[in-house]
Design a protein that fits this description.
Elements: H1 6-24, H2 30-51, E1 58-60, E2 65-67, H3 69-88, H4 99-115, H5 119-137, H6 143-174, H7 189-207, H8 215-222, H9 225-250, H10 255-278, H11 283-303, H12 307-335, H13 349-352, H14 354-368, H15 374-388, H16 392-416, H17 432-450, H18 453-462
Antiparallel strand pairs: 1-2
Length: 469
């Protein structure tokens, strides 16, 4: 048992103990939530300690996994996403007693994706991430939730089949399943080109990249709010991490094969996602199309194919995730017993809860990329990466997409700060668990915008891929 994998081992132990807690405490499931949260905190502490270890990177299971500073930062991001989902849905019986167990299982898949250096580990991570989310999407028990889970299952299985076929072709073309051992000059080109294309399709599906994005709004709309927040943040971290590791470690010397395609997909996704977000009246669907657009921003960091892009991607994942957690926490407060919130439901929010209205403004303005927020700094870093890579088209697409997105985020804010129609509006209660998520996310969003230096230092050390310019 390698000590380098203790963050993952602690999550596995958390899964088993949480399952036992659920089995032996049928009347009250609150114990399972506390056990799951304790496992997340312990795994996070170990990841922080290991990040400063001088022994990194560590290769295990015959190059099956690679534990390095990059994978440990991915651990931190997905642990934050899991903690946010767990606290937003804290002890809510509508999602079933197995909710914390499934959150931890999906988390384990995300962590595996962060350290995968082998086709088998990559596929195991994808499936371990996806299968619990299929169940979580349908956990509300309503017809809409069931449809979301079924659609996610069918399309996810289809994309997994494409991914597996692509990996099989790459193995046939290279004779190795280790990502970091791929040598493009030694590949059988027809097989390698087909394998690379199919593998990229399977991976960008998980990110919700245009034109593989149509499942995102329907699944987001039908899933419970805590699950949607988890998919919006955690799934993007896992998919972006394995996509960057796959391309930067396996095909770094042949970026001409995939760079232009990824760049075009990034521009198309940024613009289409933000344009479709303009017309949305349901906040979940608006955030779904916003998530699609933000996936396009993440692709800018990969398409740039430089060290600035790798660092900007990690930074932007944190900035985006904090803003998303804040918005979903507020949506949970407003929705109360419902699982959906329309833009009109925000009318007069500043009267019902001025602090909630202010926090919503901070989160949405961060997603829009307004200065003094983490989203602005993240977009500047991505813009800088595209510019240094001599790709002005990428930079222009990012600017245009951000300008369109600003109009989409202004609509909810306009309703939140508009005067109500005279009806008596009751104040909105703040559940303690969701309040922790909201306050931490808002403070983090402002902190990243005002003083990003500590996080910049961490991502600079974690994405120090020496072979990139």
């Amino acid at each position: 048992m390698s000590s380098a994998l203790w963050p993952e081992y602690l999550v596995v132990i958390g899964v088993m103990v949480t399952m036992l807690t659920v089995i032996f405490s049928q009347k009250s499931g609150i114990g399972a939530y506390f056990v799951a949260l304790a496992a997340l905190i312990a795994s996070g502490i170990v990841s922080i300690v290991e990040w400063s270890s001088p022994n990194l990177p560590v290769f295990l299971f015959d190059h099956g996994v690679m534990v390095d500073a990059f994978s440990l930062v991915v651990n931190g991001l997905v642990l934050l996403a899991a903690a946010g989902a767990l606290l937003i849905g804290w002890n809510d019986r509508r999602y079933g007693s197995d909710f914390p167990v499934l959150v931890l299982l999906a988390l384990l898949g995300m962590m595996v994706l962060g350290l995968a250096d082998n086709f088998i580990a990559l596929f195991i991570g994808i499936e371990l991430l996806s299968l619990p989310l299929y169940i979580l999407a349908a956990s509300r028990g309503t017809q809409v939730s069931g449809e979301a889970g079924l659609k996610y299952l069918l399309l996810g299985a289809f994309s997994s089949g494409i991914l597996l076929f692509g990996l099989a072709l790459l193995y046939g073309a290279s004779g190795t399943m280790v990502i970091s051992h791929l040598v493009p000059s030694h590949l059988v080109l027809p097989l390698a080109a087909g394998g690379l294309g199919l593998t990229l399709v399977g991976l960008v599906f998980k990110l919700g990249i245009v034109p593989f994005h149509m499942w995102v709004p329907d699944v987001y709309e039908g899933s419970p709010l805590p699950v949607t927040s988890y998919m919006a943040f955690g799934t993007k971290v896992g998919a972006a991490a394995i996509l960057m590791r796959f391309l930067f470690f396996g095909f770094s010397l042949s970026s001409g094969w995939w760079g232009p395609a990824v760049g075009y997909l990034a521009v198309l996704t940024m613009i289409v996602g933000n344009l479709l977000a303009l017309a949305q009246k349901d906040l979940k669907r608006l955030l779904a199309y916003s998530g699609i657009a933000n996936a396009g921003y993440l692709l800018v960091g990969i398409a740039s194919h430089n060290i600035q892009g790798a660092r900007a991607l990690l930074f932007y994942l944190l900035a985006y995730g904090l803003a998303v957690l804040a918005v979903f926490a507020i949506m949970t407060f407003v929705a109360q017993d419902r699982d959906s919130v329309s833009v009109n439901d925000l009318t007069g929010l500043y009267r019902r809860s001025p602090w909630l209205a202010g926090f919503l403004a901070i989160a949405l303005l961060s997603l829009a990329g307004i200065p003094l927020t983490g989203g602005f700094v993240g977009k500047v870093y991505l813009l800088q990466a595209a510019w240094f890579a001599n790709q002005p088209g990428l930079a222009l697409g990012l600017v245009v997409g951000a300008m369109i997105g600003l109009a989409a985020y202004v609509r909810p804010l306009q309703r939140a700060f508009s005067a109500p129609d005279g009806a008596v509006l009751e104040p909105i209660p703040w559940p303690w668990a969701g309040s922790i998520v909201l306050i931490v996310a808002v403070i983090g969003t402002i902190g990243l915008g005002v003083y990003p230096t500590p996080i910049v230092h961490i991502v600079n050390q974690s994405a120090a891929f020496y072979w990139l310019h």
